[in-house]
Amino acid sequence: MAKPPAESVPEPARPAGPVPPPVQRSFSSSMRVDAVVSDWRAELAPESSREAQERELYGKAWEAYLEGDYGFGLWCWLEVDRLILALGGSLREANRVLGPGRYLGFSHRKAIAAAVPVEKIYRPRKGDMSTPRPDAILLPTYQALAVYAVRAQQGAPRDKAQYEIALGEYAERRRADPYGRYFESFRVLLEKERDEGAPSSAPG
Asked: Rounded to whole angstroms, how far apart are CA atoms 129 and 90?
């Protein structure tokens, strides 16, 4: 008798077109997102391939984001860029692993950045040994810069000043930050959109 074919994890169906940013309904703290993702990770089938596990885990966070929780959108944002770096900078390979239609592109990143509650961003000063509050939002430098860039473009003097300060701090270590390229790309698209006076045509 012929052996049945090995079980494989099917890729999600390809959507009809780009998925727009969802309506924001909540913004989970980084601590809550990490706890939920950790639970999801523990539920992954150990016999599944690493790729299948990556796709399933990201898919759960992606669905939570599409349901309106922008805290999971932040996690997807970082995960996409982490995966691209891990795959040698190949966006094509990252999209293959994530599944069709799940790339978190510029329109999503801008919407998430605009929605981040800046008063909850945890930014410890040098030498500060305090721990973040349970409701805090923890951002890597390149995501924080994107948040400040969007707010600065909205015109508030305080936000512009904060953005300039953050840029100055970033300039000292930009070459050592592998994620810096993603902020640079985000900034270029943001400035292009501003100059053209219309939403960017960049995918996603």
From this structure: 37
Q: Cα(141)–Cα(50) distance, rounded to whole angstroms?
A: 28
Q: What is the pLDDT of residues 65-78, one digit of tens each?
A: 999 999 999 999 99
Q: Establish if 146 belongs to a structural domain.
A: yes
Distance, CA of 72 to CA of 159 (rounded, Å) = 24
27-to-65, 94, 186 alpha-carbon distances in Å: 9, 26, 21
Assigned domain for 203 exists: no
Mean pLDDT of the residues in the chain: 87
Neighbour count for residue 183 (Cβ, 10 Å): 22
- As a whole number of angstroms, the distance between CA 109 and CA 203 comes to 11
- Tokens encoding 28: 């989970």
- pTM (predicted TM-score): 0.84
- Provide the residue count of the chain: 204
What's the token pair of residue 151?
């707010």
Burial class (CB in 10 A: 0-12, 13-18, 19+), 186: buried
Residue 7 domain flag: no
Structure tokens at 22: 């969802």
Q: How far apart, in Å, are the Cα atoms of 14 and each of 23, 73, 100, 114?
A: 21, 20, 5, 28
Domain tally, the chain:
1
Q: Is the pLDDT of residue 121 over 70?
A: yes
